[in-house]
Amino acid sequence: MLGEDHKNIRRRIAPNFTHKALSTYTSLQQIIILKHLKLWVEKAQVGDSIPIRILARDMNLETSQNVFVGPYLGLKAREIFERDYFLFNSGLTKFPFDFPGTGFRNAKLACDRLAGILGNCTTKSREKMENGEEPSCLIDFWMQDTIREIEESKVNGVKVPPFSTDVEIGGYLFDFLFAAQDASTSSLLWAVALLDSHPEVLAKVREEVAGIWSPESDTLITSEQLIKMKYTQAVAREVVRYRPPATLVPHIAIEAFPLTESYLIPKGTIVFPSVFESSFQGFTDPDRFDPDRFSEERKEDEIFKRNFLAFGVGPHQCVGQRYALNQLVLFISMFTSLIDFKRDRTDGCDETVYVPTICPKDDCKVFLSKRFIRYPSFPRVGELVK
Predict the structure, then answer these.
(1) What's the pTM?
(2) Annotated binding site for heme, which residues?
(3) What is the pLDDT of residues 223-282, one digit of tens each?
(4) In CATH, what number is assigned to the domain containing residue 104?
(5) Is 65 left (phi over 0), alpha (psi -120 to 50) or beta?
(6) Which listed residue, of 8, 258, 289, 341, carries a Cα 20 to 30 Å from 380's Cα?
(7) Is residue 267 located within the same domain as residue 145?
């Protein structure tokens, strides 16, 4: 999207990622992360290693559903959603043959059904926000601001703002859910793999988190505590640089662009810049996993900003960047604090595969066990999402 349409939709999405909104999300994220970490340890109690790719994806699926659409996605709708989302995800790797029975056609039909379900969620949120209730998930924050704009339009006698119908908003929710599941799952898996292969980094993360938050406190990590975890945040950013989930992201050249001294990309050309390759250009010793490059002293993310493209740059930069990094930092903090883990290393286990984001070839097989006598006691999701 370009021009005023792009500015309008970005402006409407912005309230979903304010400090207040992100604080609401972090509480939900931690409750669901803890629930799934318990299940992972139980599953690994027989002493065998377990692959965690599907487990991490299930965790992200539940997290994103609760964070984005909260109480509006009922049990039956969740079952349909998970089935159709599987069909959609499978279709991404199929040839685009739009015939009945093909993976591509099944994905298109699933996509339409998913957008319909999310449109219904938007309608329910609109009713709740019109009654003046407090927002408890992303769609509520979006709808609260949308209702305000619609009312102002009526008072001023101007057209209803664009991108404000339930169907349109449901479609954008679908985009959010896709980004929050598969891309995030890739980063969680590489975080586990890289922390295992860099014990000195793991030790520093555990030391920092222990000095800020204790599982025995039975309290959720606050936004303020999250900000204080400088090194853990640097680890998260280095994971994303070192193994960017989406290796190729298509763009359109809105004007002629000099790629090199001898070649000019024509205006209107579809370009597939390699986010992966750019992450290994310019940075100091780029082939080394080194979280300190994102420290206040080195600031390589600012010095080599043109090469750090995992979240994009400029006006089309990822709107959910802060949410995605929060999910990764919260997971790293809780996973390393609550669980002892060790990779079940085999030849080629860290080679990358595309599913469609990049993941370790072995689906990140690990041995897991508890580090603490008991897990922290958090409130239930239902107590925050009503």
Answers:
(1) 0.88
(2) 318
(3) 999 999 999 999 999 999 999 998 877 888 889 989 888 999 999 999 888 888 999 999
(4) 1.10.630.10
(5) alpha
(6) 341
(7) no
